[in-house]
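The step that takes the researchers longest sounds almost clerical: writing a folded protein down as plain text. Below is the pair of lines this work produces for a single protein:

——
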Amino acid sequence: MSAAASLRRIGLPRLIVHVSVLVICIIWLIPTLGILVTSFREAGQITASGWWTAFTGAAETSAARLGEPSTARQEGPNYVISGSVFEGGKGGTVRAFGTRVAAPTEFTAGQPADIGNGETLTINEDGSYTYSKNAPFEGRGKRVYLSVATPPSFTTENYRTVLTSQGIGQSFVNSLTVAVPATIIPILIAAFAAYALSWMEFPGRALIIALVVGLIVVPLQMSLIPLLKMYNEIGNFFGVSSRSYAGIWLAHSAFGMPLAIYLLRNYISGLPREIIESARVDGASDFEIFVKIILPLSFPALASFSIFQFLWTWNDLLVAMVFLGTGKDQLVLTGALNALLGSMGGKWEILTASAFITIVVPIIVFFALQRYLVRGLLAGSVKGG
């Protein structure tokens, strides 16, 4: 089959969609892979080369000082100093060397280099060197700069440091404590509300649907201060602190409820009417219909909203800081990572390990439920009653 025939069979619009999705996946996959690889590298290798060199070895630039003039020996008319540039340090393979910091790769390893003033320097790949001069050496040992290729090296010390000494472990537990109930609560309430708005007749139903649609466009930031004020007043009335997990669960549920009701209502209202009517004829109550028929059939829509709600609550920082607090035992993962940016802004091995710990749970949730995502969203966007 020719390429033109294959293109006609697939269809140009579908091909464009497939290519676009593939490009987007690659664009998102590359930085994620970079974070993962960098989180297992040592600090020296991170500063010396990019993450894409991690599996082939990195070329690091380092400095070394040759032997002191007092160690020179005379060989004929020349004075010679020999030794190894790796003495007292880690090894590697020398690829190039130089005598100026601006040109650390000026000379190739293993080749004699004329560095002027009657001096000749040879540094081999194993680090051994021969430094000769046609006159006695003076001053301190000469400083040289090396381009050293180090073999691939990975470590789990970055994750051990983050999870034990940086408080990320407690923040990880805090984020789970916030995200899991804040995902389940609005789904349960929204599912009941969606069924009632779809299949139960009562006065004011259309008005409630219009109100739900209107609440979707209410900005989160606009309602934070009034909501926090209300929480504080309730807390003062009962003599308890408003900054608790219960408060943030209710806040996330309130902000996610309108979209959840809208999506689930559109999906549930598009289910076959014959199934509902047959169940009612058989004597099933609304609760039995909801539990035994509606929930199983609505799983794609429930899963699609679960992904959005979980990702939102897991990655949230603003609501968590307002309703939970900023104490060390209260910080969620995003807050702890934000604190690390200030205290360890230059330690990329710590930041990348922290970042990957932050994104690993959303990645697992997404891939576990992604097959239901498109089906649930498309059904909820085109069906309605």
In short: Strands lie at 58-65, 73-75, 78-84, 93-98, 107-108, 113-116, 119-123, 128-133, 143-150. The chain has a mean pLDDT of 81.
